[in-house]
Design brief:
Layout: E1 2-3, H1 8-18, E2 26-28, E3 31-34, H2 36-55, H3 73-108, H4 118-129, H5 141-145, H6 159-162, H7 200-211, H8 215-223, H9 235-240
Antiparallel strand pairs: 1-3, 2-3
Helix pairs in contact: 1-2
Length: about 240
């Protein structure tokens, strides 16, 4: 048996959409109860109604199904685990986007002109904000109902799409803009000097110079003292005295 609050809830919604009457076998605490026989009859009635409706539609109305392979119980278990992981990932993303939306609207409230209209602004925003849920309610059965048109991805900013949208924001279509570049695959590498082997004598000389030599050498060169060979660097000055 199944109750109207369990599997019967989406099944009752399906039967209501197809205008198929639901006959409850019993009542348990005010909740309709469907036995196995009544459940099978309801499923058969819904299937017949769906087949009849599909027959009245063009053959290309629904398109090709995205999944042609029949799923086993193991496939359903794997899809359930994958769906749970994706639901956690996209719930986190949706929470982030909703937080960015809240912060953006909050920044508008800081405006001097908005101070006198805070109530109207909050009322208009919260009316639409409450409809945005952070959880994406997508179940495994969406895979079975998916059609091949999901493989065709059209950008929301595409010109052909924007022309079909009735909005004051999309009445102006920008023309061709200059190409500013910035694509990583077109970046040119920096011109580096060619590598050449250093001469041994030059390397030794530059190495000793960089170490500064002995203490006496540093004082001799910096303060005008004696050089390594004992000659006075100020000899010329002393001779002129």
């Amino acid at each position: 048996t199944t109750t109207d609050g369990d599997v019967g809830t989406p099944l009752s919604a399906l039967a209501f959409a197809l205008q198929v009457p639901v006959v409850a076998s019993a009542s348990d605490g005010g909740r309709a109860t469907l036995t196995q026989d009544s459940l099978l009859k309801l499923l058969n009635s819904c299937q017949q109604s769906i087949v009849r409706l599909l027959g009245s539609l063009p053959s290309t109305h629904l398109g090709e199904p995205l999944l042609h392979k029949k799923l086993t119980s193991e496939h359903h278990a794997r899809l359930t685990r994958i769906n749970q992981d994706l639901e956690q990932e996209y719930t986190l993303r949706r929470r982030m986007l909703l937080k960015r939306l809240d912060v953006t609207v909050q920044s508008f409230e800081w405006s001097t002109r908005a101070q006198s209209k805070l109530d109207a602004l909050q009322s208009a925003f919260q009316t639409q904000r409450t409809k945005l849920s952070p959880v994406a309610h997508i179940d495994v059965y969406a895979v079975l109902a998916a059609r091949s048109n999901l493989l065709r991805i059209t950008k929301a900013s595409d010109e052909s799409t924007r022309r079909k949208v009735r909005s004051s924001l999309y009445q102006v279509v920008m023309g061709k803009v200059p190409d500013r570049g910035g694509r990583a695959k077109e970046a040119r590498g920096a011109r580096m000097p060619a590598f050449a082997k250093r001469d041994a004598a030059v390397s030794e000389a530059s190495g000793s110079g960089s170490r500064g030599g002995h203490r006496g050498q540093g004082q001799g060169h910096g303060q005008g003292g004696h050089s390594k060979h004992g000659h006075n660097n100020n000899k010329g000055k002393g001779g002129r005295r």
